[in-house]
Amino acid sequence: MSAFIKFFILLILIPSLSFSLTFKDGKQVVDKLINEEIHKTIKIPKYFFANTLNQNTCSIKGYHGDGSWGEKYSEMNLTLLDEKNYSYMMKFVDYDWNKDHDERSNSLSVNHDKHTSRLALLHGTIINSIISETFDEESKYITEIMTAWAEAGVFLNTLTLDDIKKLKEEGKTPKGCYGGGKGDIHAECLPHRVHEAQIYGASFMINAYIVKDYFSTEQFKIIDEYIDALYTKYVFPWAYKHLMDDRAFIQMADGTISALAYVAWKNKPDESYVWFKRGIDKANRVIYEDGYIHNNSFRGVRDVWYHSQGVNNLLGLMAISDIWGYHNFPENLKQKIFKTVDILNLGLTDVKKYRERKDPSGLINFSTDQKNAAYHVHQMAISIDWLIDNYTDRDSSIVKKDYMWKALKSQYFVDRNFGFEPKCMN
User: Fold this and answer.
1) pLDDT digits over 368-399, tens only?
2) Least confident among 141-150, 173-182, 302-311
């Protein structure tokens, strides 16, 4: 009997675990699977998403965007030797995501630019300095900044899933986003806080893994403890919970890449096996046979936009599985993912026809107001065309002709769905 089947038998026998948000309970389930079956072909790439970095495979050009210190769309020098860049990064030690989210975000919009922009600058500096062989000079500032963030405990005061569960039980926050699924776009959405915390945590871990050998002994201890805290409080609970449900497919391949980031940092490739299987099974559950994606494809006036995000993350799951040497990706799932590209092309060319397919879930977590519309490819899916070209047999030309996508994505040089630039994957 495969570990995959045993996993679900275990959940049936112990139903309380399937809804647990705690790190301890969930980790017991995952550890049991890891101990039962090991996938021998998996090998963590040297740079997490790539085994080599050079100008031919990966070259990142930086631009100022939302939340950055420079004029939007103006070119950014990707170096921490720049005094303004360094100062901007160090100010992050005082950042309070709880406070920022409370002041600037709601169910419809999550303003995450203050941490997204800094993570992009950090990553772009690391990658470009490795390629240009200036990393020895940059590494002092890279490790210093990351250690400062860790010492300050950035994000660690963010509400956890358990915290939010208690607030819901006490009636202090809606049972779900959009006012409890009533379409209220202005309603509080506390799960977004945890979601962003796990994206931040995963991105931090990926960068820490790449520069791991450059931390001093003291710095490494601080970074390691910080990463353990991010994983225990946010990354693991989010990935464990959301890879088990049947709803949508969003950033970090719905948490798969987040969990893999911790696996890489701890250098435990055997532990990646269960996360790949869980990510693959989740993807298989949420894609309908005709290529629409549960929830993603049916989000009111942002339906095509959210669908493209789902496609991007599904393709990212395929790509990271390939790069890590997970060779059991089901062929039938690949074909379903290819169909999601067909539906994306339909949405971009004939949204009326696209919308003839009605949402079977009945969820109301969207806006129907045209002022909130987004009919273009998600702007942070910066290399979805490259993923289509390299991991499917479908046509990417329709995506490439999406001029709104091309205009909006020009401020992004890291795909925050993954924490890196997909074109660098090899």
Assistant:
1) 999 999 999 999 999 999 999 999 999 999 99
2) 173-182
Look at domain 38-424 and name its CATH class: mainly alpha
Q: What is the arithmetic mean of pLDDT over 205-234?
A: 98
What's the one-letter identity of residue 3? A
For CA atoms 63, 66, 72, 73, give the dihedral sign.
positive
Name the nearest CA neighbour of 48 among 267, 372, 220, 219: 267
Q: Which residues of 366-396 are buried (b: 16+ CB within 10 A; e: fewer)?
A: bbeeeeebbbbbbbbbbbbbbbbbbbbebeb
Residue type, 266: K
Q: Which helix (H) or strand (E) holds 286?
A: helix 272-286
Average pLDDT, the chain: 93
Find, among 377, 371, 363, 362, the residue nearest to 407 by Cα: 377
Distance between the two ends of the chain, CA-based, in angstroms? Answer: 33
Which tokens go with 424?
Answer: 């660098």
Distances (CA, A) of 283 to 250, 273, 274, 336, 395: 10, 16, 14, 9, 21
